[in-house]
Design a protein that fits this description.
The protein is of the alpha+beta class. The protein has 2 domains: 6-127, no CATH class; 160-378, no CATH class. Helices cover 48% and strands 11% of the residues. The protein has helices spanning 6-15, 70-73, 121-127, 147-173, 178-189, 196-205, 208-216, 221-231, 244-256, 279-293, 298-303, 315-325, 341-362, 366-378, 386-391, 397-403, 407-419, 426-439; strands at 22-23, 29-34, 37-38, 46-53, 56-67, 85-92, 99-101, 107-112.
Length: 440
């Protein structure tokens, strides 16, 4: 694939350099009535487009990416500004889902361009080079707010972000199996930003149901790890902490197992990656949890964390049990490389707790839902990341201190950033602040 920018694809879409008969990834007939207006500001790439999909005329926005998964990489699934997208145009469809899930849980059709272009792609690239540069902008949203106002507004925005996560996860359960959603969500979270998609590729290429089947047919713990490492080309990219004898041993285990011989072409991002964040280390870290869950199911294994006395369902008690599920007992890696509490807490807030709320709602376990929400909203905050540090530039000291106090406040900061600050929609941001303060 040629290394070109999204701006190149903008021209292809705008100028209509496509074949006449178009079909979406889901197999629906697509007719472009109006490509839309190229949006030079923030938000979807083309607005006010008019499309006909299977005889239904739709009016809305079009978002364009090089690859389908870029929608997630760019956090559009957390951005309400993209809820009017009616078509997700991609050069290469690298997702096994036929639709893109938006922030409000609704679906958008996908159009793959790779095989439907009508001109030589290199000539177009030379003619329309990319010259767009982002400009830095700092947010003053928190200026003038006292402690009480800051706390209330962060709680409001954090709650809204969690509700959106739950809605998106619910939408995904309509497309994939519940156990698989738990499985691939865990894998994605361990890929961090650099290898989130790559870990997702392993989780979808070797789904939980398939691994569970291998387990019932006798797959050992070490064979499962060798399958992950061998099928994903990680044998060729192991960190220096892995000796030659170690690599040779695991290569032999992969060669000797009879469960899976598929090879997935995965482009790992390993440049300047800390050893503890290496995907091979991350896969071994999660191996105990996954293999132990095969005795029943991943859902039931995770639910053990919530089997606490009704009158003792507090954060401290929960964490004590929760950390145990990530306690990798394997002697394959040293203790310093095992999943720490901070990363476990991040997974709890973003993945485990929202998914378990869905489980409780689905089964009408009202007390369980209430208890999980209490834990979620009392969860302590993690150290600052790049987004929080960026947002803190416009905050007073007491506001920075407050954000570190609770995870729900940090979720509020992320909600604000992804919906407004990332796109420099300052006018809407100021209006939001006024509306929330008046409501509270």
């Amino acid at each position: 694939m040629i290394d070109f920018s999204e701006k190149f694809l903008y021209h292809i879409w705008d100028a209509g350099h496509l074949q006449n008969e178009l079909k979406t990834v889901s197999g629906k007939k697509l007719t472009i009535k109006y490509h839309g207006r190229w949006n030079t500001g923030k938000g979807p790439d083309f607005i006010n487009s008019i499309l006909e999909i299977d005889d239904q005329v739709l009016r809305g926005d079009v978002e364009i990416h090089l690859r389908t998964y870029d929608w997630i990489q760019h956090s559009h699934q957390e951005d309400s500004n993209f809820n009017k997208v009616i078509l997700h145009v991609v050069f290469q469809h690298n997702n096994n889902c036929e639709y893109t899930i938006k922030e409000d849980g609704t679906l958008a059709e996908i159009l793959e361009l790779k095989d439907i272009l009508d001109m030589n792609i290199t000539k177009l690239l030379q003619k329309y080079p990319d010259t767009y540069l982002e400009k830095e902008h700092l947010c003053d949203f928190f200026s003038g707010m006292d402690v009480s106002q800051t706390e209330k507004i962060l709680q409001f925005l954090g709650t809204r972000r969690i509700d959106k996560k739950i809605s998106r996860f619910k939408a995904e359960t309509e497309l994939i199996d519940w156990e698989q959603l738990l499985f691939q969500s865990l894998f994605e979270s361990l890929g961090y930003s650099k290898n989130k998609f790559q870990m997702w590729q392993i989780a979808t290429g070797i789904p939980y149901k398939k691994l569970h089947e291998f387990y019932r047919n006798g797959m050992s713990y070490e064979e499962m790890i060798s399958i992950w490492l061998g099928s994903s080309s990680l044998f060729d990219h192991l960190p220096k902490t892995f000796s030659r004898d170690f690599i040779s041993k695991w290569k032999n285990k992969y060669a000797d197992q009879n469960y899976l011989t598929n090879y997935f072409e995965i482009n790992w991002n390993l440049f300047r990656l800390r050893p503890s964040n290496h995907p091979a280390i991350r896969l071994i870290q999660i191996s105990d949890l996954i293999y132990s869950s095969f005795e029943t199911s991943l859902e039931k294994y995770l639910l053990k964390t919530f089997s606490l006395p009704k009158d003792n369902f507090d954060l401290k008690t929960f964490k004590k049990k929760y950390y145990q599920i990530f306690d990798c007992n394997s002697d394959i890696i040293s203790d310093k490389y095992k999943i720490g509490k901070q990363r476990s807490d991040t997974i709890a807030v973003n993945i485990i707790l929202p998914l378990m709320i869905i489980f409780a709602q689905k089964n009408s376990f009202f007390q369980l839902e209430k208890s999980i929400k209490e834990i979620l909203f009392s969860y302590s905050g993690n150290p600052s990341n790049a987004i929080i540090k960026h947002m803190e530039t416009g905050m007073e000291y007491f506001q920075k201190k407050l954000i570190r106090k609770k995870a729900i406040y940090q979720q509020g900061v992320f909600e604000l950033y992804h919906n407004y600050c990332e796109h420099h929609i300052c006018e809407n941001c100021s209006r939001l602040k006024k509306e929330i303060l008046e409501e509270l």
